[in-house]
């Protein structure tokens, strides 16, 4: 995600299913406390947290 890849691209790179990637991405959002929101993009927020420690 930090490289800007889609779930499909991540799945292809790791040779796993897109569903597996979706489950792991959801787990990352949960661990970071990023609930679903219409006002914010959780992928961007997760990467920002990753970059800023």
From TrEMBL:
Database matches in SUPFAM superfamilies: C-terminal effector domain of the bipartite response regulators
Domain (HTH luxR-type) ranges: 1-48
UniProt-recorded name of the protein: LuxR family transcriptional regulator
Swiss-Prot/TrEMBL GO biological process terms: regulation of DNA-templated transcription
GO MF: DNA binding
PROSITE patterns given in the database record: HTH_LUXR_1, HTH_LUXR_2
Pfam families: GerE
């Amino acid at each position: 995600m930090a490289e800007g890849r889609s779930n499909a691209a991540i799945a292809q790179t790791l040779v796993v299913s897109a569903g597996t990637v979706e489950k792991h991405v959801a787990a990352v959002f949960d661990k970071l406390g990023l609930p679903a929101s219409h006002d914010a993009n959780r992928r961007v927020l997760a990467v920002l947290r990753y970059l800023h420690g």
